[in-house]
Design brief:
globular; ATP hydrolysis activity; four-stranded antiparallel beta sheet; single chain; 10 strands; nucleotide-binding; ABC transporter ATP-binding protein; alpha/beta; 2 domains; L-isoleucine transmembrane transporter activity; ATP-binding; 40% helix; 10 helices; binds magnesium ion; binds adenosine-5'-triphosphate
Length: 252
């Protein structure tokens, strides 16, 4: 059984058919790429999968459970976490506190315990600090743990977003153009980190990227969207050699 399956997903904005008859199956443990030109509908697919938009048609299942039309928080709790095309961090919180926000998804204490600083508060806080530091180490951010998120350099903010998403302990991680705005060296380093995250956390990842070479280099499977519809889908090598993809995507 696929970890994520979407069948016949569709949504319109006014007269615009942003996503039409979208189907995808993502097996557990895979690193899967979603590519396509500007405005093809990639981010809209993420918004449908995470409950930001309700699909007009179609079904989404995660681990065999129907999550279609559920709220974003319910979908996150069911096991889908994401990052955004435009970074959305808690800019006034420290780096480590951003990660702890994600950890609260599965580690918590009651309000009373928090206000009265009961023993459980200290126990959970200590555990959260340890887990958050472990995650920050994966992304080379441990020395900036107390830095305000807003003061991090751009490339590190992108990494912190991924760390925070992972802190929710998802089954599926959705990354929307995580390398956007990065220089080539930062991009290569990030791709290595994504590979590492997949291995280390045994994570399933769906990655949106513009750069064909980039996704081709790390993803085993690809879906190409064009004008809201799937143009081509399958093994990376087959997709990248498909003449229709070359024509539509590279304009050749
Ligand atoms: N909330 C909305 N209201 C109206 N139109 C929208 C909305 N969200 C997306 N669209 C439109 O749907 C289409 C697909 O947009 P989407 O952001 O999903 O594309 P994308 O493939 O992520 O593009 P990019 O590569 O530029 O990020 C675009 O024409 C966009 O303008
Ligand atoms: Mg987008």
């Amino acid at each position: 059984m696929a970890l994520l399956e979407a069948k016949n997903l569709g949504i319109s904005f006014g007269g615009l058919r942003a996503v039409d008859d979208f189907n995808i199956k993502i097996e557990k443990g895979s690193l899967y790429g979603l590519i396509g030109p500007n405005g093809a509908g990639k981010t809209t697919v993420f918004n449908l999968l995470t409950g930001v938009y309700k699909p007009t048609e179609g079904i989404i299942t995660l681990d065999g459970k129907d999550v279609t039309g559920k709220k974003t928080i319910e979908i996150n709790q069911a096991g889908i976490a994401r990052t955004f095309q435009n970074i959305r961090l808690f800019k006034d919180l420290s780096v480590i506190d951003n990660v702890k926000v994600g950890l609260h998804n599965h580690m918590s204490y009651s309000t009373v315990t928090g206000i009265l600083r009961l023993p459980k508060y200290y126990k959970v806080e200590k555990q959260m600090t340890e887990e958050a530091m472990e995650l920050l180490k994966v992304f080379g951010l441990e020395e900036e743990a107390e830095t305000l998120a807003d003061n991090l350099p751009y490339g590190k903010q992108r990494k912190l977003e991924i760390a925070r998403a992972l802190a929710t302990k998802p089954k599926l991680l959705l990354l929307d153009e995580p390398a956007a705005g990065m220089n080539p060296n930062e991009t290569l380093e990030l791709m290595e980190t994504i590979r590492f995250v997949r291995e280390h956390f045994d994570m399933t990842i769906l990655l949106i990227e513009h750069d064909m070479k980039l996704v081709g280099g790390i993803c085993e499977e690809l879906t190409v969207l064009n004008f809201g519809r799937v143009l081509c889908q399958g093994k990376t090598s087959d997709v990248l050699n498909n003449p229709e993809v070359i024509k539509a995507y590279l304009g050749e």
